[in-house]
Design goal:
binds zinc ion; 5-stranded mixed beta sheet; 5 strands; 159 residues; alpha/beta; single chain; globular
Length: 159
């Protein structure tokens, strides 16, 4: 039995009530994939309260923007970009890995690997990108926060 087998078995026995398609708190959260970062536990709230868009780093990427476009078409008007301390995506050696993988496979990586080396700088960049995009109808309430995985505290960096 693997971990994924356990998870799928549990999912089959889960019961869920009727939830609204549009999140009750009108909010979308962009967060990292890190297993220590569980938005419903960090920010509170429950299933059905807000959309969660996750990727390595909790970065504003093309696909995060695509997901936000869908999210806002389903009623969200607010965005929280939540990065966190001790993030593996920040330590990921993107340039070296790109070079190594392209060398080993003989194929080009056509997508961005989004390297970054400072949480606050990247958070400011991401929020600024969202605030200036012409493709979102709601850009007036976008915040950037950093979750500290050691203390459990959330610090607002961009308000
Ligand atoms: Zn992370």
């Amino acid at each position: 039995m693997t971990g994924s087998d356990d998870l799928i078995r549990q999912a089959r026995s889960a019961t869920v009530g009727a939830l609204p398609k549009s999140p009750r708190m009108n909010t979308a959260v962009i967060a990292c994939i890190d297993a220590r970062v569980e938005p419903n536990r960090v920010l509170g709230g429950d299933q059905g309260d807000y959309h969660v868009i996750r990727n390595a780093g909790g970065l504003v990427t093309d696909d995060a923007l695509r997901s936000l476009m869908v999210s806002q078409s389903h009623g969200t008007t607010r965005v929280i970009v939540m990065m966190h301390t001790d993030c593996a995506a920040m330590a990921y050696p993107a340039a070296a890995e790109r070079a190594r993988l392209e060398q080993e496979t003989g194929q080009r990586i056509e997508f961005k690997l989004h390297p970054f080396d400072d949480l606050e700088t990247e958070l400011h960049r991401g929020v600024a990108q969202l605030r200036s995009t012409p493709f979102l109808p709601h850009t007036e309430n976008i915040r950037g926060v950093i979750y500290d995985v050691e203390t459990g505290r959330v610090r607002t960096v961009v308000d």
